[in-house]
Amino acid sequence: MPQPFVTFSRNVFIPLTNVCRNRCGYCGFRRDIGHPEAKLLTPSEVTDILTRGARAGCSEALFTFGERPEEVKDFKRWLLQLGYDTIIDYLVELCRLSLRTGLLPHSNPGILEKYELEKLKPYNASMGLMLETVGEIAAHEGCAGKVPGARIKTIEYAGELNIPFTTGILVGIGETQEDRVRSIRTIKELHEKYGHIQEVIIQNFIPKPGTKMASQPAPGINEMTKTVSIARQILPDDVAIQVSPNLIPPGDLVKCGASDLGGISPETIDHINPESPWPDIKKLQAMVDTPLRERLPIYPAYVKKKWYASEIAPIIRKLSDAEGFRKTYK
Known about the structure:
By secondary structure, the protein is of the alpha/beta class. The chain has a single domain, classed as Alpha-Beta Barrel (TIM Barrel). 34% of the residues lie in helices and 15% in strands. It is built from 11 helices and 9 strands. Strands 1, 2, 3, 4, 5, 6, 7, 8 and 9 form a 9-stranded parallel β-sheet that branches. Helix 6 runs parallel beside helix 7. The radius of gyration is 18 Å and the shape is globular.
């Protein structure tokens, strides 16, 4: 039975660093050390974003960054200047800062070991890692972090630790239709084992100037509709399908099974896809026929099951209604 509403969260996007060990053929976010746009945000810069988010009524602080940046020459020096040995230790402190500001962290740090997830769990309402594809594709050649087995292992660790989790696939990066089906089935199997997958993102590839795949065509609406429909047939009913309304018109995708529109920020851009602005909430409602309902970064089912740490509990009590959704924000 279709859900009588479509959900979204109100967030701020915090691109902690764009330095990354991987060199994916489609990524326009990554920068080399020495590039004028290479950065590691300072605590004061993060504080400014969090403060603006709190004032705008956001509930989520989305922390994302390049994977294992310490493996890139000279990045460690940046960390040490801030007083941290690892990017994960720095992230833990920033998640604590987010909680003090009143926003619930949702971190996407890339592949992690189990002990690193254990460090982050007390200070994150939910976490995420895109599976992207289980297929072997040219766009991932030479990228240690894009080995499917390693990404699956991180998602599995999150399940063992009862971390509400977001994952998903990228459509149009060189994978086959069979790869997409196998990827979605892999996610299904992980959820059936651990029960921790709250949403699966079906995200369309967008070509970026200056990348190896700049001339690769983006998947069309028919291809995306077909993929969402297949995902809805395969995935359990308690796993939401998310699509990105700044990357593709969501109306037809909602009709064929998508039930979430992800994080929408009133204060920050989509730093991964800066050419694609977020629709504001009023425009978002006009893009779908189904009523919108705001949620937290942790889905209502996991709020009810109390899959969160004591450090996060006061903010969840403050922001969530009796059903586990976001209290009405005007």
